[in-house]
What does this fold into?
Amino acid sequence: MTQTIDLTAADGARIPAYVARPEGKPKGGIVIVQEIFGVNKHIRSVADGYAKDGYLAIAPHAFHRVQPGVDLGYDEQDIATGFGYKQKVDVLPAPGIMQDLQAAIDYAAKESGGKVGIVGYCWGGLLAWRAACGLTGLAAAVTYYGGGMTTPEEAARKPKVPVLSHFSDRDQYIPVPSIEAFQRLHPEIPVYLYPAEHGFNCDLRSAWNADAAKLARERTLAFFSQHVG
It folds into this structure.
């Protein structure tokens, strides 16, 4: 079953979120953090997939504070539009949208009755990394080609929960040397490098790589099975 609900953040703001529920009792909760394209068809399908695997999945609308209802595709104009929304989010007063992710974590914990993991893609990967380092109520975090998380400032953060990271070796946004530097700083984090391009998990993008997406998903599910349930 799927529905859109409203989360209430710490500052009282109401943030919509897409929720997909499994059949039967959830194993736990998974928060899905969007790319710069909003809670679009791909992100909803990701949430649906985790629900089929037994988790209560929730994808909060991370752009809602700057632009409600974002649902973009992947052409050049959509990329420019999404990047513009990201820039607006970046200058929100602290804690910005991190409180929205916290509200999603709290909801997932309450509704699933179990532990909660978080997974993010591109910009969402960066946000999932920040959540692992600064938010409460998480049991694990997974990042897919987290844009910006390998910069020195972001890599200096210390995660409070187990983290798994997926990157690609032909990513025009995340240089391999920065991934290697991140790995040296965080030897405790399993870091996987795939022969693919940025966005390889999304079957709506030309960068989609079925083999890499399948292997990354298998590793992610095994990781969540270990740490979430």
